[in-house]
């Protein structure tokens, strides 16, 4: 039931504060302010040498964000692959190591094939899944559930941010298990994580402003998305969302990579969405943004109030609430979803059922 919404995607975007909050209650003990994994999923990360993550599409981008978290908070090296590539790369796997699958549907054939491959190599299988009765959930040793509820829109939105919430909690837990994080560190990270639903709700208020950008985006042939650090996977996700539902060609790049080629594409017809929270990486990203501006690119900057104050001239600046750097991917996911959504609505495409795509891809 779409309720008051025109599309399931709109409803699912709007539901995020609630479902991310719900997902977090399963992973955080609100009284102690510490991570507490759900019953049956109390995995101990202390003895791992590496973590191997596999997933497809949007779930893969959640994994890319998680790599930064596991490496930073738990000093745990992460290998991450697109599931359809994983087996053919023939990576050396450690028996007894953990292979982590991420999947909304739990039925994605490529991810399932990787799960079975890893199991055959003697690895333990963890799965971040949204459908608890799915094949991937059934075949995994440990299930870390997202509780996003049923996601109908083919373009994944709330499942993605719930995946990020679970992965953030797991990275903190890994940091505790591996004695990288002190109790105070954990408390600080958890405190910033439980602020996320409120910050997401505030971010949703940008919708009218974002809707106004739709006509400019609808005219574009190509759109670039740039980000550094954990904003880089969000740039990839922004480009995927726009491609899927508006059919406009879009690419996400690490902001520093622009000058190594893609800047050749930039002219006054190319909107460039820059994801840049005011953190330690801001100055660098801002200078990449200047390179784009110098070539006439239409910059849409997504940042917080401080970032907006430090940025030069842009085509549009969307100001999201200030958040701890750690949780910014969950916040910045919201405006890129809304931007794709309103562009597609403006163009009149079938938002919930885009051409050529299926909600769950059960062939390899
Ligand atoms: O169900 P899964 O999470 O395993 O699906 C993976 C991808 O097929 C999925 O994320 C796809 O990329 C979405 N259409 C993205 O919006």
TrEMBL record:
GO terms for biological process: amino sugar biosynthetic process; carbohydrate metabolic process; fructose 6-phosphate metabolic process; protein N-linked glycosylation; UDP-N-acetylglucosamine metabolic process. It comes from the Bacteria. The active site is at 359 (for fru-6p isomerization activity). Its EC number is 2.6.1.16. Coiled coil: none annotated. One of its GO terms (molecular function) is glutamine-fructose-6-phosphate transaminase (isomerizing) activity. Residues 41-180, 213-354 form the SIS domain. Keywords: Aminotransferase, Cytoplasm, Glutamine amidotransferase, Repeat, Transferase. It is an enzyme of class 2 (transferase). It is found in: Cytoplasm. One of its GO terms (cellular component) is cytosol. It catalyses: D-fructose 6-phosphate + L-glutamine = D-glucosamine 6-phosphate + L-glutamate. Catalyzes the first step in hexosamine metabolism, converting fructose-6P into glucosamine-6P using glutamine as a nitrogen source. Homodimer. This is Glutamine--fructose-6-phosphate aminotransferase [isomerizing]. It comes from Hansschlegelia quercus.
